[in-house]
Amino acid sequence: MGARRDRVTRQDIGSEGGLFVERNGEETMSAINRRQACAALLSAPFLSLGRASAEEAGPVKIGSLSDLSSAYADITGPALVEAVRMAIADFGPALGKPVELVVTDFQQKPDIAVSIAREWWDRDGVEAIIDVPSSAAALSIMPLSAEKRKIILATSTGSSVITGKSCSPYTTQWAYDSYAMAATSARAVMRDGSKTRCFIAADYAFGAGLVNDASAIIKELGGDVVGVFRAPLNTADFSSYLLQAQATGADFVAFANGGADAVNAIKQASEFGLGRDGKQKVAALVLMDPDVHSIGLQVAQGIYIATAFYWDRDDPSRQWSKRFFDKVGRMPTMLQAAAYSQATHYLKAVKAAGTKDADAVMEQMRALPVEDFFAPHGVVRRDGRMVHDMYLARVKSPEQSHSEWDQYEILATVPADQAFRPLDAGGCPLVR
């Protein structure tokens, strides 16, 4: 067994060399040399098979298009790749062959994501791409996916446009989206009499989606949005945005960002006294377990969050999370848990379809129920959205916590039909 390799760079996938892959968790070389392999194949007398038949005869191969080094590496990253490995190992062979996994860091750049996806689909036999923690990257590769009839398993992608106006018959969105996070948070916190909200938002597609979806729901419920302040990805200093948010006097200041940006913003908000003076409350639309752990309960306590998963929710979630902890050394985020669920569901669909053909597999992904520790009673809709219950949580105080990862108090369960946008309301052209 070779050593595991989390990153497969574009140099690793060079036309002269072999592609590093994992077969059910083991690293192998797909071909010693592509030119030698092609020459051998062309000289074989039995190779009158068409390209489609040759592709169908190969292994099921999943590519993890991941953030291994940037703002979302903690909440997705290598730990999400490990969750996919767990799913592949637990599932075993698909269509009689070991499942293969390839992994690369697309550096949060949509153009690199498109280039890698094209290579994987044109040359390297990848059938499905999982993770994609960037809405811009997902929206960039979705047209290519549709053109080539290849599947995108959008685990970490947050924009609700993915299953709205830009929906595709070859894309499923699993963990969450901007509408669900906004609806879960807004509907719950508006119940306590809060009427006004302002946002400190990530200045790209995901942040815009969060703000747009949350604003629509807040206005629907009779509230008002009194300010939106947009910060670029990887902002180090949030002081000017925080001062502007305080000046609005909004009942709630909501952080519509994630990963390292959310961590930095919340730490600096505490230094400014935001949420401590009794005048304004703080909500984080996308804050996850490692983020809270990094911030610390002393600073993060009392923050309202929306989540699709919590490791301590019930016995099945605790059992799987313990396995994950033993491999990674920390409890999973909702995105990492979702990656296991989505990869497993994809492989079940391949088995049920009896083929890797994308249309047949997608039909089975929509037909099969999602019944697992992540999403009991989940359903994949025609628009590609997997709908499931969401949860409103509040970060515990140090006194309330009983262990290192005992961080959330679940306040409410929001049923799937209330948490996610109605099927006919997103503008997806697949929905009639």
Number of domains: 2
Major sheet size, sense and barrel closure: 7 strands, mixed
Could you say which overall geometry the principal axes of the C-alpha atoms support? Answer: globular
- The number of helical elements comes to 15
* Parts with pLDDT < 50 across at least 5 consecutive residues: 1-20, 25-54
Structural class: alpha/beta
Output the radius of gyration. Answer: 22 Å
What gap, in angstroms, lies between the N and C termini? 50 Å
Please explain how this structure is put together.
The chain has 15 helices and 16 strands. It has about 425 residues and is of the alpha/beta class. The protein has two domains: about 20-175 and about 320-385, Response regulator (Rossmann fold, 3-Layer(aba) Sandwich); about 180-310 and about 390-425, 3-Layer(aba) Sandwich (Rossmann fold), CATH 3.40.50.2300. A seven-stranded mixed beta sheet has the order 2-1-4-3-5-6-7, sandwiched between helices. It is globular, with a radius of gyration of 22 Å.
Key traits:
Rossmann fold; 18% strand; single chain; disordered N terminus; seven-stranded mixed β-sheet; 432 residues; alpha/beta; 2 domains
Could you provide a short overview of the structure?
The chain has 432 residues and is of the alpha/beta class.
SSE layout and pairings?
Layout lengths: L19 E4 L2 E4 L4 H10 L7 H7 L3 E6 L10 H15 L8 E6 L4 H13 L5 E4 L3 H14 L2 E4 L16 E3 L4 H12 L6 E7 L2 H16 L3 E8 L7 H10 L3 E5 L2 H13 L9 E4 L4 H7 L1 H4 L3 E4 L7 H14 L5 H20 L4 H10 L11 E2 L5 E2 L2 E6 L12 E7 L1 H4 L13
Parallel strand pairs: 3-4, 3-5, 5-6, 6-7, 8-9, 8-10, 10-11, 11-12
Antiparallel strand pairs: 1-2, 1-4, 12-15, 13-14, 15-16
Helix pairs in contact: 3-13, 4-5, 6-7, 9-10, 13-14
